[in-house]
Design goal:
single chain; mainly alpha; 3 helices; elongated
Length: about 100
C-alpha cells in the first residue's frame, strides 16, 4: 500500500468513525460526511491520473457536484430543524412525532 493510498483510505475511515461515534450534533455528522466525500473525490481523481483513463474523466466532477448538493440540502435540513426544535441535537429529533 502506497503512502498516498494509506492517507486517503485512513481519511475516509476517520470520517466514517466520526460518523459512527460522534452523532450527537447534526453539524458534526454533516462535517464527517463531507470529509468522506472529499476523500473519495481525491481518491478517484488520483486513481484516474495514475491509470491515464479518459473514459471515466467526468466521474470526479460528478461526485463533487453531488457532494455539493448533499451539503446544501444537509445545511437546509440543519437550519429547518434548528428553527423548529431550537437545537441541532439528534436525540431531540424524533421522526415519529412532528
Amino acid at each position: 500500500m502506497t503512502p498516498t493510498t494509506f492517507i486517503i483510505s485512513s481519511s475516509f475511515m476517520l470520517g466514517l468513525t466520526g460518523m459512527a461515534f460522534h452523532r450527537e450534533h447534526m453539524l458534526s455528522a454533516l462535517i464527517c460526511l463531507e470529509g468522506m466525500m472529499l476523500s473519495l473525490f481525491i481518491g478517484i481523481t488520483l486513481w484516474l491520473t495514475t491509470t491515464n483513463s479518459t473514459s471515466m474523466s467526468a466521474a470526479p466532477m460528478i461526485l463533487l457536484t453531488l457532494s455539493a448538493c448533499e451539503s446544501g440540502s444537509g445545511l437546509a435540513i440543519l437550519v429547518a430543524t434548528s428553527r423548529t426544535h431550537g437545537t441541532d441535537l439528534m436525540k431531540t429529533m424524533n421522526m415519529l412525532r412532528c
